[in-house]
Amino acid sequence: MTVVVTPLSGSEKLRLREVFASVQDSRSLSGYIRTYGFVRFSSPCSHMEILLDKVEGNANVHRWSEQTQLEKGDSLAVGYMPELSGYTRISVTQNNLQELKETWDQWGNETKQLFYGNYGDLPYLLDVQVDEHLFQALVLFWNPAYSCFTFREVDLVPTVEEYTTLLCCPRFQVDRIYSRAANVPTFWKKLMAITGMSEQWITARIKEKGECKCISWDALKGLILTHPDETKKVDVFALSLYGLMVFPRALGYVDEATTDLFHRLSKRVTSVPVILAETFRSLGTCRKAGAGKFISCAQLLLAWFYSHFRLIDRVICRVFFEDYSPLKDIVASTRRVDVPEENWIALL
């Protein structure tokens, strides 16, 4: 089956609206529009029939999961009581991404399209403001035992499918998950392959930060601005996004572990499971300890959160358009408001 784009006709839009209204009235559609509304199919049968089959099929899965939960209960031991502190103070200190954003804004459409084709919609995350009050409130609702957010009687967790949809990277193959290879090239060899620079240039700029080797953003920024190879310039910019925003382990630097993951992206592996694993690990560690630093992509987690708490009636039909980007739409429709942490806690 090939993924293509086919805009809906007027009659199809009307039928789709009627079906959504009908399923929503029966309370079996909740949570599934966003997951499958972004997918576009082409096959001998119409894309409308496949979409409706997906909606109906996921409604059945939803009913089955609820019934199984009622019959078999939780997977945790009877009497399990989580040992959690009453309050968690988490640090979401971020790299200053302003220079990355300014560089992106200066690029022409051709260079940006080259980036989108290779690395997806990551640059839209540069426009996501990290609301520390909201983030601090969210952490209090993270349940390490189940690895999910629990809002009263509702459990919510980012999935591989949701993050893959948001990042919208054509290179990702969902069945090719990143894992560290047994024989990994040295740090400088990976940087040589990514940047196209000489061994002498690379080794002169490698630094030690704690127990890991890194390369500074200043060194990479100079390459982005002056590199004669357009493709390599895009590659270095993408590496900087991964090191400074997706995995901000050392402020101002891109570490060796991030470089290893990025180097494997050329093999069409997906980085989404690693991003989710780091997110869950970091949230769980901070929640259990009662404090800590969040080391994953705060912007992507907040974009996912916003996607579940906004009106979607205006984007039902746009999702079938060729240039539709869910992450771009979320960023454009989200307005940051200065809400105190205690108000977010009460709301959630």
Side by side, the strands of the main sheet go 2-3-4
Strand content bin: 5-15%
**Into which percent range does the helicity of residues fall?**
40-55%
The helix/strand class is mainly alpha
Backbone CA Rg: 22 Å
| Overall tally of structural domains | 2
Q: What does the oligomeric state look like here?
A: single chain
Q: How many extended strands?
A: 8
Note the gap between the termini.
40 Å
Tell me the major beta sheet: 3 strands, antiparallel
Please tell me the overall pLDDT. 77
Order of helices and strands: HHHEHHHEEEHHHEEHHEHHEHHH
Low-confidence stretches: 1-48
Inertia-based shape: globular
Number of helices: 16
Question: Which helices and strands, and how do they pair?
Answer:
Elements: H1 10-25, H2 33-36, H3 47-72, E1 89-91, H4 98-106, H5 109-119, H6 132-140, E2 142-143, E3 148-151, E4 154-156, H7 160-167, H8 187-195, H9 199-203, E5 206-209, E6 212-216, H10 217-226, H11 230-246, E7 253-255, H12 256-264, H13 272-289, E8 291-293, H14 298-308, H15 326-333, H16 341-347
Parallel strand pairs: 1-8
Antiparallel strand pairs: 2-3, 3-4, 5-6, 6-7
Helix pairs in contact: 5-11, 6-16, 8-12, 10-11
